[in-house]
Amino acid sequence: MMIIVRYGELGLKGKNRRMFEELLAKNIERKLKRYGYSSHTKILRGRIFVYASEETAPLIAKCPGVVSVSPAKEMDYGEISDYLSQALKDFRPASFKVETQRIDKEFPRTSQEINEEVGEFVVREFGWKVNLKNPELIIGIEIINHKAYVFFERFPGIGGLPVGSAGKLVALISGGIDSPVAAYLMMRRGAEIIAVHFRHSEREEEKVRKIIRALEEYTPREIELKVIDHFSILERYVKKLREIGKERWICVFCKYRMLKIAEKIARERNALGIVTGDSLGQVASQTLENLYIESRATKYPIYRPLIGMDKIEIEKIARDIGTYDIFLSYPEEKCPFKPRYVVTKGDWEKFQEILKKVES
Ligand code: ATP
Ligand code: MG
Fold first, then answer.
1. What is the pTM of this model?
2. Considering the domain 2-156, what is its CATH architecture?
3. Ion ligand 2: residues, Cβ under 5 Å
């Protein structure tokens, strides 16, 4: 068995196409190796052929850049009927159709001719009904370089672009629902991420490590996680803010500090920006005013892929990628520094004044 991997957008990348294909093929090999599967790949006419065990198909489908995968059998055209009479003998579909794609235009039969020829064979052999509109079973055939590839399944991939094709980002990962989704969305567009977590507690860190494991299902390599002791950083600010009666500003200061530290890591690691899970208005503190102040912590671009998304949309993605269940499996921990009332419409001038006092 082997696995046919189809990819979409890569084709649009003009002269970079070859580079993207090679990166995707490498990513697949690397990822399978990490999960204990040996494989080798071949790039052929807009497809990647992965020679590996059939059970790797779901792992491959989760590689960013992959549009769909089909475990397939490679054979000569003349061998198709023998193969089908064996492979399909235990199937009892209510209906079927044959769907051929002839990528090899020099092949002496057209797709339509192949559909008819193979379809007629199946009718003769098994007596199944043909249904072109809504068949229960689709017998897929692809003709590539004079070889036939036969398959019965097509698993959807996650789309996007291969990880590593877009450079590196520092992703701020809390134990919440949003930030893992934000990191995932950027990874799916080809970014490699370095995760940074500001630690509140052991449990929270454990949860974040599990979240990272889940995100690693989408990357060729393991994700590096930097854990930073949040308290030792915030303590001083919180103390000062309380002293001057400005504790309502704690959350804005907290984010501002996080972004400063993220920037430092980004610089050290040659990352090109920072990703957060902010979503406009989702909590009282995620206002445009506060985001304006927080964004001024750094000259690095801050990517907020969830900014315009609703909670329900975000949760759906979190469920799909498996981070939602991890979130639910831990009790929610309230931030011990969070004041009863938080500034919701922070003013930049005022923030700067307070910052001066706090840092003096
Ligand atoms: P999330 O669901 O990601 O926790 P949230 O809706 O709770 O987000 P905030 O608490 O306002 O939002 O945090 C906004 C963003 O700041 C988060 O999405 C995350 O990127 C970052 N962030 C917040 N807390 C932490 C933390 N402890 N460590 C790392 N990043 C954090
Ligand atoms: Mg949170």
1. 0.94
2. 2-Layer Sandwich (3.30)
3. 174, 176
